[in-house]
Amino acid sequence: MLWQPINRANPDVPAYMPPTERLLTLMNPAKTKILVIEDEISIRLGTTTLLGTSGLFEVQEAENGKIGVDIAAAFKPDLIICDVNMPELDGYGVLESVRSNSQLEQTPFIFLTANATKQDIRRGMESGADDYLTKPFKRDELFNAVNKRLEKARLQREAAERRIGELRSTLSQSLPHELLTPLIGIIGSSDILLHHAADLTTDDIRESGAQIKESALRLQHTIENFIVLSHMNLAATNPVTVAAMQAETTTMANSLIPEIAAKQCRLHNRPSSSVRYTAIDSPAIAISEQLFWKAVEEVISNAVKFSEPDSEILLTESQTETAWSLTVTNMGIGLSDEQIQHIGAFMQFNRSVNEQQGSGLGLAIASVICSIHNGSLDITSIPNEQTTVTITFPRVG
To answer: CA 95 to CA 60: how far, in whole Å?
Structure first.
């Protein structure tokens, strides 16, 4: 082994090192674990030797896919390098097994192949692979691929941590108010029943009971929405979960929308005739029925709550070659341009003026759902006149 002078700034790092390897060292003060799965012994030995002798990685190897899956479950590598064509279990089977393991589903995965055609690459990427290396490869190609995958994984982790931090901060600031408002209604009405029962008429008791139920339902909806928003924000940080969500479809939008609108009218004591729906022959849409229902429900609920009971709400479906949209227009309090720019979770505008309970939480949920599915939520408004909200999702096919 050639002598190398000591790097006194960090004795564990050689003084002379190729730039890519030096960058990896700075990125990974603790050794990163890499699993190499390859049936060709010369390729496997060469790859593990290059990675292992760099001093940057803890490397394990497997001679076929089946063994590789078992080692991955126990070793929990930070990155997997895997051949495509192998006995026992090929690379696609390994990738499928890895992605189905909750502890490994986000592990960066690099395919090794002797003949990477466009069709092969597309199949691998659609299966969840992160990169391809064509055999034979050079030392710099190997380290560059490893560097890029580890850097991307690091950025994804940091983004997830930031998102979780932002969600935690928002919850701590907004949750008390959103929960206390309906609780105060429940406590106030129950207090009347407890301390003034002898003086109350049957109608008074019925009214207090109705107020308790209304506040309890509002509290239930708020809690459910907090849970949904939390799940959506966490899901958005996981590429595997996002891909699975985007693979779901809804095919009967024009039958679901009237049902959702009727339910919202009932909940808010509004005549169903106040909603006018313009339908189309709905295409297949790239979103599950459950999340489609939630997004549409929150947008229609927002229109029902923040408009006069006798005013009309317009629901209009439309489509292009690639996308489907629903536009919801209500004649109500409207929003200014500044308010639209600052829409976020738990924000209700002009709360002191508008006595209806609610928040920007519903629109925030709809917006996150749209974003996860490569769609959009757009708002236009004329203050004190009308608000139009349009949600868009990709069509399937």
So the answer is: 17
E-strand stretches of the chain: 32-37, 57-62, 79-83, 109-113, 131-134, 275-278, 313-319, 323-330, 376-382, 386-394
Q: Say whether 15 sits in a helix, a strand or coil.
A: coil
pTM given for the model:
0.54
Residue 278 CB partners (closer than 8 Å, separation 6+): 314, 315, 316, 317
d(CA 126, CA 202): 65
Pairing of strands 376-382, 386-394: antiparallel
- Which residue ranges form the domains of the chain, and what is each CATH number? 31-137 (3.40.50.2300), 161-237 (1.10.287), 238-397 (3.30.565.10)
Tell me how far apart the alpha carbons of residues 292 and 311 are, in angstroms, rounded to a whole number: 26
220-243 confidence digits (pLDDT tens): 877 887 778 777 877 777 777 888
For residue 85, the surrounding DSSP H or E stretch is none
- Check residue 322 and give its pLDDT: 94
Q: Calculate helix-pair angle for 361-372, 289-305, nearest 10 degrees.
A: 150
Task: Give the residue among 350, 245, 362 at the shortest CA–CA distance from 300.
Answer: 362
